Amino acid sequence: MVNIGTRISELKLRNPTILASGILGETSGSMKRVASCGAGAIVTKSIGMKPREGYPNPTAVEIECGILNSMGLPNPGIEEFKKEIDEIDEIDIPVIGSIFGKDEKEFAFLAKKMEEYGLDAIELNLSCPHARGYGLEIGSSPDIVREVVREVKKKVSIPVFPKLSANAGDIVDIGKAAEEGGADGVVAINSLRAMKIDIHLKKPILYNRVGGYSGKGIKPVAVRCVYELSRELDIPVIGVGGVETWEDAVEYILAGACAVQIGAAVYYRGLSVFAEICEGMKRWMEENGFESIEDFRGVALK
Ligand code: DHB
Hints:
Layout: E1 6-8, E2 11-13, E3 17-19, H1 28-36, E4 41-43, E5 60-63, E6 66-69, H2 78-85, E7 95-99, H3 104-117, E8 121-125, H4 136-139, H5 142-155, E9 160-164, H6 171-181, E10 186-188, E11 192-194, E12 197-198, E13 203-204, E14 211-214, H7 219-232, E15 237-240, H8 246-254, E16 259-262, H9 264-269, H10 273-288, H11 293-296
Parallel strand pairs: 3-4, 3-16, 4-7, 7-8, 8-9, 9-10, 10-15, 15-16
Antiparallel strand pairs: 1-2, 5-6, 6-14, 11-14, 12-13
The structure holds 3,4-dihydroxybenzoic acid.
């Protein structure tokens, strides 16, 4: 019998498929549905200090090999978000609270609130590809990332996972800074800065012009980042970007990931994607004589 349970620091997951932030992670109802469909864990939508409406439409468009979106970090704010978390009691898988802020003080405050609400871990959205003041200004500076992680770790005892960007600089430098700050693991990668122009209107399609590209098209970039981070860091790496099939998930784990997040594929394949990936992975493990995720994690690094 193969066992596809996995560990990320002290978080124990029944399987390595995690719902990525920004997809169905805003209401208690949708989170319950995802849990009942077989996901190993859930990341909430990114939550900030105050309610934000986000940008006017168009905020998302399907493009070649993925989705381009620029929502503008819409969210109910940390106080209002408590109402949703109060209603997820019966969810029996870890729920990871995603937060964004403008500096280490905001991140630390939000993380503490998420811990008080009873969430199991924190994901730091340090790398939104386009929101001014909340994104790459933070996530592309090793010094700022180290400081944000350090301040958050001072405030909470649940695991903290910064989500890194491949948009600027060397992701390994950022990953090392996160590790020095005390991160319990890193998530790689956030969506890539991108643009789509409507040739008939002769202007960018998105209201915000620039957005984040996610889905199949970014998978090779993300797998390379996971590979390099796994080689250089001692903390767990969670892979995200274009995971749609069990083959994609196996590829990430061979590159060193201990789990994968699934986002765009929930749109393409529906909520059955979690169970389908787990089934395929189990079959492949049996055929290859692997009894656990650890048996083949990082084999491609050797
Ligand atoms: C948004 C935030 C992100 O972190 C991302 O990768 C894409 C979009 C947003 O809210 O606009």
